[in-house]
Specification:
The protein has about 140 residues and is an alpha+beta fold. It contains 3 helices and 3 strands; from the N terminus they run H-H-E-H-E-E. The two termini are about 20 Å apart. It comes from Mycobacterium kansasii.
Length: about 140
């Protein structure tokens, strides 16, 4: 999933993220981009008129449908998000945690990854990003 202004991740983005982060952490994973609104009205007039909260709420529905579809097909799921899509992923994790226990995905089958860019020290440029990954509900 992309960030605000990036509702449908470009294939080169998906390939780059897969090679730089996903394959390193989960070798053999198949990458696919997930489309969601990624809007922040009025800044994204070219994409539509959803507020950030409306866009995130729709993104949670889209992500949940994608996760459910893959888990029901007995596939493992790794969600990679940054910017607005990391908020979507966080809200989805809370939704999963609130499911009845029998419906909660097995932690080994679903992971989320977010790039973490630590704040710069005074006078320093931004350091290289790192990836934080964990089972979604831990």
């Amino acid at each position: 999933m992309g960030g605000t202004f990036d509702p449908q991740p470009f294939p080169v983005y998906v390939t780059t993220i897969n090679g730089a982060y996903i394959q390193f952490l989960f070798p053999g994973a198949n990458a696919a981009g997930l489309t969601y609104p990624a809007q922040f009205w009025p800044l994204t007039l070219n994409l539509g008129n959803l507020t950030i909260n409306e866009s995130i709420a729709q993104g949670v529905v889209d992500l949940n449908n994608a996760i459910t579809s893959q888990l029901n097909a007995s596939h493992n799921v790794i969600d990679f998000g940054f910017s607005q899509s990391s908020v979507v992923a966080t809200n989805e994790m809370y939704a999963l945690m609130n499911l009845p226990l029998a419906s909660v995905p097995i932690p080994a089958n679903f992971h989320s990854c977010w790039p973490v860019i630590p704040p710069p020290r005074t006078g320093a440029s931004l350091p290289a990003s790192r990836v934080s990954t964990s089972p979604s509900w831990t």
